[in-house]
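Hello support,

Our group uses your service weekly, and this is the first time we've seen a run hang past the timeout. The protein is Cytidine deaminase. I'm not sure whether the cause is the sequence or the server load. Input pasted verbatim:
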Amino acid sequence: MDELIEGARAAREHAYAPYSGFKVGAALRTRSGKVFYGVNVENVSYGLSICAERSAAVAAVLADELEWDSIAVVADTKLPTTPCGACRQFLAEFNPKLSVTIANLDKVHYTISLAELLPHAFNTETIDS
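Update from on-call engineer: The timeout came from a worker crash unrelated to the input. Re-ran successfully.
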């Protein structure tokens, strides 16, 4: 997991956050072992911004890597910051049991499952009932 955390930390340096200054990096590992990186990219129309987690996820989809194992997310916060609700739902589309490691720049980190972060995700079972 340290490799994913370090990858997310390095990716974070490339985030585009001119409005908030809140840079986030993510590293998403697929079951095949490939790692995809993402950063948050802000927009003057703030609702059009994209989070680091979804940025990494889109890169994996583009490479046709749809089976995900784990993700690490790094931000410069006192305590590690969890993915936002939109990112949780987006990630659950591909693996509701995804392992999520969150870390800060001081190397404080912990791992939790996406199912624990989003216990009642909207899914095909919900809409097919």
